[in-house]
């Protein structure tokens, strides 16, 4: 990994970025959002009245050429995983009452402050499954306010060869895959929660397990995956943008036909790592990145600051970390090789997207603890029998076949 930790120590973000630690519990109270409409990521806790197929797990964004040297130059891969802890050899489905969306902002350069502006929306809606466990997909591109839709697409059923849907839009070829794939995330998350609790003084102090004992909490599970291959020239707009801020959302349709956002995800393990209250985690999922800088973020900022200080960060570094990772979007500067923390901007924010096998947990732990914790001793390939994932596929959608 090429993360330069000292860079974070030199930062001095503005007070507005500090307060922007994710506006939320107060906002939910004010808007009266019902409990049934709040959600979680991999391990943020769950809401009993809402299925896991409305829970996001990971976002990946990378230049396809960096994953597959034989791929066409200029194509980007976006992947959205949901429905965590799907057990092996069982069919799972996407919600028929929700919209799954990638959202993108064109960015002038890698140093620009994220705005959360929705320049492009890539939307997926699913029909009930047929007798072959396939769901029809309505795919809609909302680009600069104009819509392009295609409904002649379908998912791939369990144990079926990957069905790749193709759409020609304004001369660009867009490819879509949707179906079960192995959960590619790797993390000893249970031990992380013990380590964090010890640092916060709510449990005995412990460290991470050694390489021979560390457990990958996601080994053997599947997820619902949506993978998209899209030419950069289709996204770039009239100014030829080469850098994008990306996040993903799930919105649930209510009884009046209106959609309410219930999930949001961008950078891995940030909200889950800094926030300990399930209500604040759920609140975070319900608002757009534009709310991350809202003054009502104080309740969440307070909890995030407490966690960062418990992990050994002083006041200046704590402010710098919050400024580097908020608003919560995943930036990808396509002028350089993809990879989480392959490069940083002046605020210390990762700017090269995320590859499937990037060890984002080790990167995040190193940053949040100022290098005191190097990682959780879990890797994609695994170093003991409690770890290890299948080999990635050699072509789109690249994710490993389901268990």
Structure characterization notes:
The chain is of the alpha+beta class and 403 residues long. The chain has one domain (6-368). 20% of the residues lie in helices and 25% in strands. Strands 3, 4, 5, 6, 10, 11 and 12 form a seven-stranded antiparallel beta sheet that branches. It has a five-stranded antiparallel beta sheet with strand order 1-2-9-8-7. Helix 9 (298-310) crosses helix 10 (315-325).
Task: Bin the helical content.
Answer: 10-25%
Shape: globular
Terminal Cα separation, in Å?
A: 29 Å
- Give me the secondary-structure category: alpha+beta
- Main pleated sheet: 7 strands, antiparallel
Give the averaged pLDDT, no decimals: 85
| Tally of DSSP β-strands | 12
Please tell me how large the radius of gyration is. Answer: 20 Å
- The helix/strand series, from N terminus to C terminus, equals HHHEHEEEEEEEHEHEEHHHHEH
- Unreliable stretches: 1-40
Tally of discrete structural domains = 1
Number of continuous helical runs: 11
Share of residues in strands: 25-35%
